[in-house]
Amino acid sequence: MSQPVVIIGAGLAGLTVALHLADRMPVVVLAKRELHEAATAWAQGGIVGVLGSDDSIDSHVRDTQDAGAGLVDETAARYIAERSASAVEWLVAQGVPFTPDTEGPLGLHLTREGGHAVRRIAHAADATGKAIHDSLLAKAKAHPNILLRQRCMAVDLITSRHLKREEPTRCYGVYALDIESSRVETIAARAVVLATGGAGKVYRYTTNPDTATGDGVAMAWRAGCRVANMEFIQFHPTCLYHPQERSFLITEALRGEGGHLKLPNGERFMAAHDPREELAPRDIVARAIDFEMKKHGLDHVWLDARHLGEDFLKSHFPTIHARCLKLGIDIARQMIPVVPAVHFTCGGVVTDLDARADLPGLYAVGETGYTGLHGANRLASNSLLECVVLGRACAASVAESEEALKFVLPPWDESQVENADEQVVISHNWDELRLLMWNYVGIVRTTKRLERALHRIELLRAETLEYYANFRVTRDLLELRNLVDCAELIVKSALLRHESRGLHFSRDFPATLPVSFPTLLIPPTRRN
């Protein structure tokens, strides 16, 4: 039997790769929590499809470039835009129940979101991610060549440095923690695909699920892969402000359909910040809200959708309407309290357009990877599209690759460690890291804050690595280790950018340079 392809992550990116490979070779998908807990299921808005007669590839590329503030790779943007229609068609063929419109292209209703010139977002009401994830997960469960393993977390990639012999530099597999048994397994792989999502949990407030701890970025960095643009952390402008719901976002589409941002006195404020008002790209809207909150001493601002009407809100935004109503907010009659929260990691593991990372045998897809598509700020609903397009390209590349040399990989060595005597170090360092990132590396930054953050991160990193060296691994410890690595990458990237651009705004460097380039970090193992 041939070696399997190991896919780390069971969201849209990972499942797309798995479904495109499974007819040709065995696939193992690892999910560190339950299978349904991927970030994909949390996506509300939709997926871009250049489908309408009023739309074009050039228009989508322009909108992507405008949102990306001069750092979008045009080749990547065009490659993905050209494949957007076929990506949506593939999802339709998988049974995704998109909201229909008999007069719309492919019989789909298209909505519009901030930064888009036209309606081009295919959606399933306001729970697109869940509809997509449920459909693909059902397909994967039914496929005899796909093994889905939940509660199984990758510890580290197995590379040439783990071997006691001269071998070509490449990735050979992964060490994985079976959380139920607390045993670390050695899994050999024809190829390893990182589809672990972003690093939103490095911040105190985020719209991301608990799985978003930057695992893929951290593992690839430790294995010797380059990362890029980690300073560009997207803050979603409108996360519900409520003590019982700290991670529930209010989709971009609600503003796209006419929702207004307001101060407590009912005054709209976006016109003072951008002529596109509520339809400006996310970075502009998030900074505007942050500015108004600080100016007026507010904990949140308001999103007013009352004028859209109860019937419209119930039919187009049933999830938001029901969730808010459960919390005592009738969005047809009351304004919604909203606040910015970390939403998306625009940087990641450097890959080509076949999702190949620097290490042969290693791939990265979705939010984990960096292709240059998002530049300094992601255009709304490009993320699900990237998952499908790059997932399909990744599968084609893996299928054409040669199987790794067959030899026995070294087992995980825990002979020098013991069970932890207390867990307080992990919980304390986790809380401290997320708070300092929120306070020092947030929407508005200064060099002094970044330097303070880096100093504290280095201390936390030393404590975490000491703990890692002496005690058996747990999911919490592994996530903390990965978050510390990602936090360091974010801060070091931010310190290298001496300008304000897109999602990175510095009071010390408020101007935007005439010409700029991606921030590229090279791990120590590649510098010699």
Low-confidence stretches: none
Number of helices: 14
Largest sheet: 5 strands, parallel
In whole angstroms, the N-to-C terminal distance is 39 Å
Strand content: 15-25%
Describe the oligomeric state of these chains in a short phrase.
single chain
Largest sheet strand order: 6-2-1-10-17
Morphology:
globular
How many β strands by DSSP?
A: 21
Which structural category do the helix and sheet elements fall into?
alpha/beta
Proportion in helices? 25-40%
Radius of gyration (CA) equals 22 Å
Mean pLDDT: 92
Describe the protein.
The mean pLDDT is 92. The protein is 34% helix and 16% strand. With 528 residues, the chain is an alpha/beta fold. The strands form 6 sheets. Strands 6-2-1-10-17 form a 5-stranded parallel sheet, with helices on both faces. A 4-stranded mixed sheet has the order 18-16-11-21, with helices on one face.
Describe, in short, the structure shown:
The protein is built from 14 helices and 21 strands. It has helices spanning 12-21, 57-67, 74-82, 84-93, 128-142, 215-223, 252-256, 282-296, 310-316, 318-326, 382-400, 424-440, 447-470, 475-496; strands spanning 5-8, 27-31, 47-48, 110-111, 121-122, 146-150, 152-159, 171-178, 183-188, 191-194, 227-228, 233-240, 260-262, 301-304, 336-345, 348-350, 362-364, 369-370, 444-445, 505-506, 520-521.
